[in-house]
Write a sequence for this structure.
């Protein structure tokens, strides 16, 4: 995919990384400030998300006023192959329960698509300082370090499978290694991209949740699959509907082995 002339890929990448870092700085004053008498402080999360969304909208308007922002059930109205071709997909907070509770595994993601094709993806974790990024069809990076998903289809008791909450209600697992839920889907997928985890099982996702990390995971040599092993096409969910199917994120040679350890309850 060739980025249109006048908006070079280096300029777009620099904008994405700088803006997502600024959003991280803006988010930190809210981090861990959930009301102690509430299990989940929805008011705090909403305020933070509105602040972060407003910041991104202002930065985009100032830098690329002709670009659009993806909105659930909105993006198809003006997005065509002719005119307004650039759309940014911004997820202000992934891991909101961790965010409001003061647990550092949460982050902000940003992707750019052009003519329905992914261009780049960035995921930033402000507390840890971890920045994952990739350009479509190129290499994936963790900061300045190139990353690759594990491609060896042998899993020992030191292996790691990352899952969603209530995974145990849906699957019987014979996975020989560790099974963990860290509370942040994008982080799970990026850890697969680094080779730190063999795979991740994802549930209750959306296009907005997965747009950026889709670019990163594919650049690392892994993919997002349906749990039955079939192909998964994220663009089928661009109209904003939720993704009902459970998904498996892993390298092509590893995914069948991970699936063999998981049996879905009837």
């Amino acid at each position: 995919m060739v980025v249109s002339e006048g908006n070079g890929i280096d300029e777009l990448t620099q904008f994405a990384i700088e803006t997502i870092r600024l959003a991280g700085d803006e988010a930190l004053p809210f981090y861990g400030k959930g009301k102690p008498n509430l299990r989940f402080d929805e008011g705090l999360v909403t305020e933070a998300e509105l602040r972060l969304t407003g910041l991104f909208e202002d930065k985009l308007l100032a830098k690329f006023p002709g670009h659009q922002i993806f909105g659930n059930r909105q993006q198809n109205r003006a997005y065509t192959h002719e005119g307004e071709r650039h759309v940014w997909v911004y997820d202000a907070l992934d891991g909101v329960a961790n965010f409001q509770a003061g647990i550092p595994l949460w982050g902000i993601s940003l992707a750019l698509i052009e003519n329905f094709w992914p261009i780049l993806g960035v995921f930033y974790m402000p507390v840890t300082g971890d920045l994952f990024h990739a350009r479509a069809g190129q290499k994936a990076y963790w900061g300045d370090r190139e990353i690759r998903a594990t491609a060896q289809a042998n899993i020992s008791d030191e292996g790691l499978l990352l899952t969603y909450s209530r995974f145990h209600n849906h699957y019987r697992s014979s996975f020989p290694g560790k099974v963990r839920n860290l509370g942040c889907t994008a982080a799970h997928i990026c850890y697969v991209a680094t080779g730190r985890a063999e795979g991740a099982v994802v549930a209750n996702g959306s296009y907005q949740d997965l747009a950026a990390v889709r670019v990163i995971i594919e650049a690392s040599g892994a993919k997002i699959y349906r749990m039955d092993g079939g192909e998964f096409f994220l663009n089928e969910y661009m109209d904003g509907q939720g993704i009902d199917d459970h998904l498996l994120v892993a390298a092509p040679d590893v995914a069948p082995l991970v699936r063999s350890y998981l049996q879905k309850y009837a």
Remarks:
- The longest helix spans residues 42-63.
- Helices lie at 9-27, 42-63, 96-101, 167-170, 185-194, 207-219, 255-260.
- Residues 1-6, 72-79 have pLDDT under 50 and may be disordered.
- The radius of gyration is 18 Å.
